[in-house]
Structure formats: C-alpha cells, structure tokens
C-alpha cells in the first residue's frame, strides 16, 4: 500500500470584485424597479413589495465583505441580475476548463511537476456547465495529462470527497499522480434577485495535486479521510435536463437556482459536522491538542466560530481556524481548499491539520493531514 501526499495547491481568483455596498446598491435598484412595475398589484395586496437589502445585515449574518465573480456588470445590472459570459464555440476551451487549468498549473508549479506527470484528473464541483463530455476530460487534454479523468458532484463537499477518491486510488497503486480541481462558477446558479441569499456566493477555482509518498519528499501526508452524507432538501437546486419536461420548469428561473432554508441548515449541519470531526480525529488517533489548524468550509463566520470552539473545546487562537469567506464569500467546494492553500506555508514537519467541508446533500468530508 502506498501513502498519498498533497504536494501542491493552486487558486484561480477572478479579476472582478463586488463589495457588499455595490451588491446592495444593485439589489435595491432592482427592488425599486420591481416595486414600481408592480405598484398596482402591490397596492391591491396581490403581491408583496420587495424590501431593501442591507450591508449591515450581510456582514452580521455571514461575515462576508466582498466576493469575486467572472462577470460583474451583468450581476449588478438591475434589469438583469445574473452574469453575462462570452459565447464560446464547441472547439474552444469551456469556461470551467479554463479556470480549472489556471488553478492546476499553479498546483503543478508548486510541486515542480508538469501536466504530463499526471494520470488522474477529477473535476469535483457543485455545478457542471454541461453533462458531457466531462469537464475533467477536457482539463486532462488541455494539461497534456495521461490516464483518465471524470467529473463528480457532492456540492460543497466535492473537494474533500474528490481528495478521498484520488488518495484511495494512489494508495492502492491504480494511479501515480492526481489533480483534484474545483472550478466553481457559483454566480451562474445564485439567485441575485433574492435578498435572503444574494450575498452568499462567489466564483473561484482551486486545485490540489496528490502524489505517492515515494515521489514526494515534502508536502502534506494524507493521514486519513472520512466522508458522510445524509439526505436533506434544505439546500436544493432543481435545474437539470428534465427541467423543460416539467409544467413549471421553464416559466420561473427561481426553481432552478440555489435555494436554501438557511436557519435549518445552520441548526442541522453544525452538530453533524462537529460530531463527524470528533469521530474522525478519534479514529485516526489524533488528540485535539495535537491539531494545529482547521481549514473549514467557508459558508458563514458564526458557523465556523461555533465548529472551531466545539472541536477544540475552547475559542480558537488567531490562526488556528483561518477564514477566507470575508474576501471570497462562499465558494462552495473550493472554500476549505482556498483556506488550506493560503494558510499552510508555516507548517513544520509533524504538525497536523484538518480540512473539512460540509453542505448540500447534506454532505461532510474531512481530511487529516500531517506536514512531512
Ligand atoms: C443564510 C444566513 C446567512 C441567514 O442568516 P440568518 O439565519 O441570521 O437570517 P434570516 O434568514 O433568519 O433572516 C433574519 C431577518 O433578516 C431579514 N433579511 C434576510 N436577508 C436580508 C438582507 N439581505 N438584508 C436585510 N435583511 C435581510 C430576513 O427577512 C429576516 O427578517 P425577519 O426577522 O423580519 O423575518 C444563515 O442562516 C446561514 O448562513 N445559514 C447557513 C447556511 C449555509 O451554510 N448554507 C450552506 C450553503 S450551501 C453551500 O455551502 C454550498 C453547497 O452545499 O453546495
């Protein structure tokens, strides 16, 4: 049996930033337009007026200060409220493959490898721009990688589930070097017209390179992985190829976007995650005192504060549980990998940390790593 080591990570960050102030200004302009257009029906009590959003609420409820997006102008146009992306021909790289490739190149560079060294690509993300051919196979070709590639979707837990799949294949010897890539264009599936969730998501792509220990003198040894799922409708998206067959599937775009019962998610996911981490650490023989850092899924600051406190049994010290959501918002599967990528350089050999994602499904995935 081989051992699997993370030797490189890469983050692609889009160039457009939307601050909370810009987001709220656009949302409020959209709400005013909606209310003016529907003034009679609102006065007659047939439909409800759209209330304004607020910068203070967003920061307090989520900890998010800004988000990166692939297109700012379409999102902030009050008559549109979703991104405008360039039409691409079938013969040029798709947008997911393009941003995935950028993150992959950064991860390969960090490890001193090239695309040709890779023999497995897993594209693990919440939303795929098409059903087939797999985005991962397109990335495999663009990288000049060998072996095989496939897509997988476990919503926010896609990265950790992908790392488990890749690490298992490396351990058993069926592949030598794997890239798990998470291109998340969440701006495409966020309902920017809904004030309850319009602030939640941002775009990004992350990549993680995993190699056999004998090929990798430095990096983060994957000590153990653990995945769990439990069905819930509280985070849901009804888009898909059957949409046009449903009577209400074409008329209202709301149904095919991200929807959630945020409060229920908060209440139900927290104990699931805290219990999952506790059990995983116990099974791995890692005491919480020996845990140097938690790189958590990035959905909500209070949620992460709660998990950090529950796992460590005290308030985390600065740097023990770094958040990136204030800058990136929730980037679905990529969040914990951005945190890992940006806050792991200072680890010394023997120090242990835990990457943990959680979200729709429900799903939770954790990876215990040790610096070597
Ligand atoms: C979504 C939340 C930030 C919302 O915060 P709260 O629960 O505190 O707030 P709430 O929805 O109860 O709303 C409180 C009050 O504020 C109002 N309110 C809502 N939105 C507002 C806005 N933009 N501006 C001003 N006021 C607003 C509501 O109408 C309500 O009013 P009143 O009090 O009058 O009724 C939070 O619940 C959360 O983060 N939950 C966890 C979500 C999560 O982790 N989801 C996973 C995402 S999925 C994921 O990560 C990806 C994946 O799995 O694929």
How would you describe the overall organization of this protein?
The protein has 372 residues and is α+β, with helices and mostly antiparallel strands. The chain is built from 11 helices and 13 strands. It has a 9-stranded mixed beta sheet with strand order 5-4-6-7-1-8-13-12-11, sandwiched between helices. A two-stranded antiparallel ribbon has the order 2-3. Strand 4 (120-124), helix 6 (135-143) and strand 5 (148-152) form a beta-alpha-beta unit. Helix 5 (95-111) packs across helix 6 (135-143). The radius of gyration is 21 Å and the shape is globular. The two termini are 18 Å apart. InterPro entries: ACP_syn_III_C, ACP_syn_III_N, Thiolase-like. It comes from Thioclava nitratireducens. It holds the Pfam family ACP_syn_III.
In short:
The chain has helices at residues 20-37, 39-43, 55-62, 72-76, 95-111, 135-143, 158-172, 262-284, 301-312, 325-328, 335-342; strands spanning 4-12, 16-19, 66-69, 120-124, 148-152, 177-184, 204-212, 220-229, 235-236, 259-260, 291-296, 352-359, 363-371. It is an alpha+beta fold.
Summarize the helices and strands and which ones pair or pack:
Blueprint: E1 4-12, E2 16-19, H1 20-37, H2 39-43, H3 55-62, E3 66-69, H4 72-76, H5 95-111, E4 120-124, H6 135-143, E5 148-152, H7 158-172, E6 177-184, E7 204-212, E8 220-229, E9 235-236, E10 259-260, H8 262-284, E11 291-296, H9 301-312, H10 325-328, H11 335-342, E12 352-359, E13 363-371
Parallel strand pairs: 4-5, 4-6, 11-12
Antiparallel strand pairs: 1-7, 1-8, 2-3, 6-7, 8-13, 9-10, 12-13
Residues 53-54, 57-58, 61-62, 126, 155-156, 195-196, 235, 260, 262-263, 265-266, 299-300, 303, 330, 332, 359-360 line the site of malonyl-coenzyme A.
InterPro entries: ACP_syn_III_C, ACP_syn_III_N, Thiolase-like
Domain Beta-ketoacyl-[acyl-carrier-protein] synthase III N-terminal: 150-217
Keywords: Acyltransferase, Transferase
């Amino acid at each position: 049996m081989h051992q699997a080591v993370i030797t490189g990570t890469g983050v692609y960050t889009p160039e457009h930033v939307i601050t909370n102030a810009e987001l709220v200004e656009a949302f409020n302009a959209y709400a005013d337009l909606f209310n003016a257009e529907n003034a009679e029906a609102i006065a007659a009590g047939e439909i409800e007026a759209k209330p304004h959003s607020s910068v203070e609420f967003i920061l307090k409820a989520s900890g998010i200060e800004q988000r990166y997006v692939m297109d700012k102008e379409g999102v902030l146009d009050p008559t549109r409220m979703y991104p405008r992306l360039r039409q691409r021909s079938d013969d040029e790289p798709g947008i997911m493959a393009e941003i995935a490739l950028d993150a992959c190149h950064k991860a390969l560079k960090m490890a001193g490898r090239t695309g040709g060294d890779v023999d497995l690509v897993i594209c693990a993300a919440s939303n795929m721009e098409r059903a087939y051919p797999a985005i991962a196979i397109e990335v495999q070709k663009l990288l000049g990688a060998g072996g095989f590639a496939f897509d997988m979707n476990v919503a926010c837990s896609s990265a950790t589930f992908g790392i488990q799949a890749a690490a298992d294949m490396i351990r058993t010897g069926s592949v030598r070097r794997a890239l798990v890539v998470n291109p998340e264009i969440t701006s495409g599936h966020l309902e920017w017209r809904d004030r309850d969730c319009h602030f939640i998501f941002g775009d990004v792509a992350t990549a993680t390179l995993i190699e056999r220990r004998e090929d990798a003198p430095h990096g983060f040894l994957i000590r153990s992985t653990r995945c769990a799922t439990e069905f819930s409708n509280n985070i849901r998206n009804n888009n898909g190829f059957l949409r046009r067959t449903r009577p209400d599937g074409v008329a209202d775009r709301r149904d095919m976007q991200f929807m959630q019962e945020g409060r229920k998610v908060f209440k139900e996911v927290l104990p699931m995650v805290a219990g999952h981490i506790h059990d995983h650490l116990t099974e791995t023989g890692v005491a919480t005192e020996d845990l140097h850092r938690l790189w958590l899924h990035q959905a909500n600051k209070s949620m992460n504060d709660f998990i950090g406190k529950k796992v460590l049994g005290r308030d985390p010290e600065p740097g023990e549980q770094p958040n990136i959501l204030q800058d990136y918002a929730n980037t679905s599967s990529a969040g914990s990998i951005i945190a890992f990528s940006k806050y792991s350089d200072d680890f010394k050999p023997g120090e242990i940390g835990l990457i943990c994602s959680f979200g729709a499904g429900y799903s939770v995935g954790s990876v215990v790593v040790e610096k070597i």
